[in-house]
Protein 1
Amino acid sequence: MADKPTISMEEFKFMADRAGLGMDQAELDHLKPMYELYMEYTALVHSINFGPEEMVVEFHPD
Amino acid sequence: MATTDKKLHHLTIHEAGQLLKAGELSPVELTQAFFDRIAETDDRLHSFITLLSDEAMAEARAAEAEIRGGRYRGHLHGIPIALKDLYDTAGIRTTAGSRVDFDRVPTEDSTPTARLKEAGSILLGKLAMHEFALGGPDWTTPFEPACNPWNLAHITGGSSSGSASAVSSGQAMGALGSCTGGSIRGPASLCGIVGLKPTYGRVSRSGVVTLSWSQDHVGPMTWTVEDSAYMLQAIAGHDPKDPTSSRAPVPDYSLSLREDIRGKVIGLPRHYFFDPDPGVNAEVVAIVEKAVVELEKLGAKIETVELPSLEYVRAANTIIMVSEAYAFHEPNLKSRPQDFGEIVRARFRIGGLLSAGDYLQAQRCRQWSKREFAEALRKVDFFVTPTMTQPAPAFEGYDPNTTLMGRSFTAPFNVTGLPAISVPCGFTEAGLPVGMQIAGKPFDEPGVIQAAYTYQQHARWYEQRPAI
């Protein structure tokens, strides 16, 4: 993976408030580093160019 | 009295079933032996959340009467088993390992619960688990984490932690786990038992507490491959209560209990599972490499396969998992967040912070992976890999967040829905078990079972039991 993605506390708080998670500052401080780990995963899946590939609505393995 | 030299709690389901059927062992005697074993060990193992002594002994007496009356139902009749505490049990508390569901008493059995009852099994109790099937040992939940019977200072892995410790220590002959990213095969591998994750849709999820609708699987955890086959037989099959339940016919899995892997082609995705990586224990890989050589000696052909999507599958599994978990748990997460343990509360909240675009891109990644695996499975019969990247870590210094990143050897088969089994294949120098994973084509549980059975009968690791 490239540089580890980060997010500002201001932006992170905005997202948490928008999601209605109702977290105080201590909880935001605790969660932000973990969210940044997940950002590595989201960056990874967004790095793939799937072109017109569709998403199947219901998953079946067969 | 039973006519066996073995301790009753060390019998396999297969062995006990033969004695029960022949009237040489009483279900009452067998069930009592397991409660004695639990009383002897559970203060150290913490496998059980709820014990059902009175109910189980009543079920055992009923089974005894039926068998004596010539109404033997099959391999599970009179067999003491236990359930991860996320399988709904009518009238019996089902906590999912959380304070959120601490007092929840379902009114109906889950479909797997009901099917195990129909097969005549005896339910000993409900088992410890990582809260809502995610995270790791968490002392901020109301329940003690289960300990590894091979070394009590080490974790069992999870999330089916109590299922693994109970079966490994001889507290139950079999258990159900559930698996969204590896929660059946992982703890099975770390505790030296067999764990079978069937194809997605093979076993109903109805009445099983949800983590991730599209990735949750139900499956058995047992001491041997044949015992997993018997348990799968009891729970497999279409269920109209589960919209993703498959209508594919259920074969007779006992027909797969044959020692023959000659001519089968095993694909090794070396670049992801075997090549050196800072997050992968070299001793574990070396042990599995030896097992692969044994499979080759038994007549299998070994081929290296390339699956480029593997580098993305863990990310897809994680994003889909926490997004779907958030959707399921959102009301409680917002109204009573304090009732969640610290680990799960944080991860579920992250699910609420991911975007629809993230989720959809992860699903498209999943489609790619599914297609790529299917293409490879036209050329090989199975994939064989280590089940886990590491042997069981010690509790001391263990941080579940360190496992958030890096490789997962089990998640690819949750994302693709393919059947996969973990079978013991050796021990580390420190005496901790190592498992080998065998994954196959959709609904080829028979092939996966036969390959694992062939190896098991040749290697005979099941003859070693933890000294607890």
Note: The first strand of chain B starts at residue 48 and ends at 51.
Protein 2
Amino acid sequence: MKRNAVVFVALVVVVMAMLAAGRYLDRTRKHGPTRLVGNVRGVPAPDFDLLTLDGQKVKLSDYRGKAVLLNFWATWCPPCKIEMPWFVDLQNRYGKDGLVVLGVAMDDSEASKIAEFTHEMGVNYPVLLGTDKVSDDYGDVQYLPTTFYIDRNGMIVDKMAGLLSRQDIENDVKKVVNSTYKIKPTSSTRAQASHRAEVEVKHTSKDAAQ
Amino acid sequence: MRRVPLFVLTALLLAALGVAQGDKQPTVIMAPVGNVQVRAGGSTDLELNFRIGSDFHINSNKPKADYLIPTVLKLSPPEQVSLADVKYPPGQEMSFAFSPNEKLSVYSGDFAINTVLKAPAGAVPGTYPVKGELRFQACDHSACYPPRSIPVQFQVTVVKK
């Protein structure tokens, strides 16, 4: 009987070690260094390409220059439901200051069912259809709600897992809204700036001609 | 007598797996089912016992809102045996810190699902596997986890009349 117990304990230890090693190797192989792990404050938020409930493609980088509250949620998650009216209110109050709330629905259900739910909840911000990839990129988001606060430069300011108080959420919103957008002169931004300048020149010439 | 230590050891093993994976994941485990015998032409009651990890709850089979995912047991009996209705326990009406004014119908701790196994008069005696799964969606005091399924397996022995 004692021998059986020793064998069982040894088996548990071996299984634990194998699982821990397997999980580590799997993460490293699948995700590489871009996947969020551990403390994510100050880390660039992984870009994504997701569909809205009405089929429009949305990238996180589309919102560069905005303060983003990225909320992973699901219709079957009662704590997520508690937060939704708060996000609606925050979008109303801080939208003019550059806040964009983005919901990422981690449901398996059809977009129409999620849309019905968000309509009933009076959601006034874009809701995107979550994928395994975006969940993995953001650190295997299993615990819902999980919210990332992303500043105007695309850097993560804070991550909150589980339901927190409305005041805690608003404090994080203020942090990202108060962030300053620093444009780095990369080749792409230089090209964009040059394009914008050309457009502005054309408009100015048209105005002058009229 | 041997069932209790096995249940405890299984719980310990699952807890160890949770630690090895580095996350606190909700666990639901099924107690091993003893020797289930049913006489050809007769029936026998069957109770399946489950244990939910501490700090977690799962929705009952009849949650209070359409958007919540119910706990459902699905079994595929062999041809020699049929299952009568599956009877779920009533949920405990509980409210949680995330919504103190709303009561949810949930299971926590231990719960049992009952059913009746029937063997037709012409059933061929022998031992047959019954396979299935329990699907559930768990939450703790402030967050929820995606729906999961655990396997449900036991053997049933059909004996002569």
Note: The first helix of chain A runs from residue 2 to 31.
